[in-house]
């Protein structure tokens, strides 16, 4: 019974992620989700209790999916620069899909001024991602790939900016060079982070 | 009469920008704006005609404000690197205010998948801004400040990314170092864009 309820919840959350990708996280309500999924409003209330709890669950589910598809596989790459590269490459494929990636990014700008549990869940997810990037840079320093005077948090800031710019170029402006620009920008960031060859 | 109607419209749009900063551009409706501003719904309908036309007017008004406060004063700086610096500095002060800047940025992620006139207005505003940044880089090349092999559109892509990352760091994560990180990241971008000193 508990397992089947867990599976139901998982399916509902998948639908909710897709639905939120269309209407935005602020637009996600139990009533709207009921209509979109043909599930009963009372059943959804039984699962989530409130619109706010639904939003938090959707952010957590989208973050988990992101970790499963991007972070976890990338952490299997060798420590140092190869792992940084895998984090970027997997993020890039993720970002170019029409998937949960955009919910989290969109919500980062949607909810930045709206205090509450949804915002808190999003801040946690964002911090985890920035920490993952900074930690990968730190390991690349220890492995002797990146310069010792590189600030790992600055590296995460720059890499995250590159990702946000790719998002806008690809999805809003529909710049046909977005993908190539992202790759070139990442190459420049790597080159600037590496220990320069001794002359 | 025409002038007074123009002034009224201007005032309404100022309120609408503030209101959209709270509810998001998708959440902006004539009914909601009427409630927030204590103006009559029929009066607002007379001014804008539809929710969609209201959203387009708000995007255009916010873009105009951005051009007035950021772009136009920066264009008074000397051509080349000083102008690029002014564009960045003025953007940074703008971004750190609780103002229309966040409407345009938030809407870029909110509306990227929602076809329609609001999205078109936003794409135009975004393209203008990226073109302004690329053009400033191009002039810096002509003035002999930036490397001839720099791709001005890549420069705009990187600078825009830095700005989006600053937005997230300052407004979502509330990183107390967001401002300093943005400054350092901009210095790195400038250093990488300049003609290297001959050894």
Beta-strand residue percentage of chain A = under 5%
Largest interface: chains, residues each: A-B, 47 and 47 residues
What is the CATH topology descriptor of the domain at 56-193 in chain A?
Tetracycline Repressor, domain 2
Regions of chain A with pLDDT < 50 over 5+ consecutive residues? none
The portion of residues assigned to helices of chain A is: over 70%
How many helices of chain A? The count is 9
Instruction: List the secondary-structure elements of chain A in sequence, H or E.
Output: HHHHHHHHH
Oligomer: homodimer
How many DSSP E strands of chain A? 0
**Bulk shape of chain A:** elongated
What would you give as the CATH superfamily of the domain at 56-193 in chain A? Tetracycline Repressor, domain 2
Query: Which CATH architecture of the domain at 56-193 in chain A would you pick?
Result: Orthogonal Bundle
Structural class of chain A: mainly alpha
CATH C-level category of the domain at 56-193 in chain A: Mainly Alpha
Biggest sheet architecture of chain A: none
| Overall pLDDT metric of chain A | 91
Spell out the blueprint of helices and strands.
The structure is a homodimer of 199-residue chains.
Chain A: H1 2-23, H2 30-37, H3 41-48, H4 51-74, H5 81-96, H6 101-110, H7 117-142, H8 152-172, H9 178-193
Helix pairs in contact in A: 1-4, 4-5, 4-7, 5-7, 5-8, 7-8, 8-9
């Amino acid at each position: 019974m508990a397992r089947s309820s867990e599976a139901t919840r998982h399916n509902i959350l998948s639908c909710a992620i897709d639905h939120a990708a269309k209407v935005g996280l602020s637009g996600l309500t139990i009533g709207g989700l009921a209509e979109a999924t043909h599930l009963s409003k009372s059943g959804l209330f039984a699962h989530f209790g409130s619109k706010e709890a639904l939003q938090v669950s959707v952010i957590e589910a989208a973050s988990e999916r992101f970790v499963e598809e991007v972070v976890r596989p990338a952490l299997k790459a060798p420590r140092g620069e190869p792992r940084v590269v895998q984090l970027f490459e997997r993020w890039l494929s993720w970002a170019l899909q029409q998937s949960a990636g955009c919910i989290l990014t969109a919500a980062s700008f949607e909810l930045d001024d709206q205090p509450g549990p949804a915002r808190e869940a999003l801040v946690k997810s964002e911090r985890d991602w920035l920490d993952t990037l900074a930690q990968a840079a730190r390991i690349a320093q220890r492995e002797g790939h990146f310069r010792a005077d590189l600030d790992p948090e600055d590296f995460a800031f720059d890499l995250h900016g590159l990702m946000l710019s790719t998002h806008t170029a690809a999805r809003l402006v529909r710049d046909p060079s977005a993908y190539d620009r992202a790759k070139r920008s990442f190459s420049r960031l790597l080159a600037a982070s590496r220990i320069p060859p001794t002359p």
